[in-house]
Structure formats: C-alpha cells, structure tokens
Amino acid sequence: MDDRIFTLDEARALLPAVMEEAAVVIAARADLAEIDFARRTGGGSELGGLPELKGLQARIEEILSGWNERGIEVKGIAPVLVDFPSVLDGVSVRLCWIEGERELGWYHRTELGFAGRRPL
User: Fold this and answer.
1) Residue partners of 107: CB distance under 8 A and separation at least 6
2) Per DSSP, what are the bridge partners of residue 97?
3) Which residues contact 40 (CB under 8 A, 6 or more apart)?
4) pLDDT of residue 43
5) SS (H, E, C) 71-93
6) Please, are residues 52 and 44 in contact by the beta-carbon 8 Å criterion?
7) pLDDT band at 47 (very low <50, low <70, confident <90, very high)
8) Please, are residues 57 and 36 in contact by the beta-carbon 8 Å criterion?
9) What distance, in Å, lies between the first and last C-alpha atoms of the chain?
C-alpha cells in the first residue's frame, strides 16, 4: 500500500497495535543479537542456534511486512522507527513514532526526515 495517507486520528488509533508489535520486534532483536554473538564466538546460547535465529528473523520480517501492507513506513528497527504518511495544512508530512515514545506526538515534513521532527 504505497500511497496510503493517514489522518492523525487514524494513525493514533493504529499506534497501540504498532507498539505491541514493536515490543515483539525489540525482544526478537535482542535475542538475535545474543544468538548471533554466540555463533560468531563459537559459544552456545540458551536461546538456541541457527533454527531459532532464522525463526526470529522470520517473525521480525512478518511484522515489518504487515506494517508496510497497512501503509506504515518502516524507517528502522534499532531503534524501531515508523512513519505514517499524512498531510498537515496541505503539506506532505510523516507522523513519526520511535521506540520508547508513549504516544504519536511528532511529525516531520516528508522531505526533511527525522532531523526535521517537530511536536504535533
């Protein structure tokens, strides 16, 4: 869904589900790092090995694909950063949420990216 435009209310309504899924991504990201480190250093991990690593990668990809299918733009996973395409006062913007924030309270003009974030 490439050209979905969200109202602020629509994006805020989706945010609780996005935050729940982001928590899964965050946990999987940490487990991936631990398993990968153990594999690279020749040690073992209580979290498993290659099959578990592949399973975690697949779960993360499933969540990210689901966001993309809903029109949510994934900008990063470490930290989790997503944008909701929107229009404010006739200007193309991205309603912006980053891991750790409790609400959708920021936006930036589409062409400025994260560095141009402003409070809503």
Assistant:
1) 86, 88, 93, 94, 95, 96, 117, 118, 120
2) 82
3) none
4) 82
5) CCEEEEECCEEEEEEEEECCEEE
6) no
7) very high
8) no
9) 25
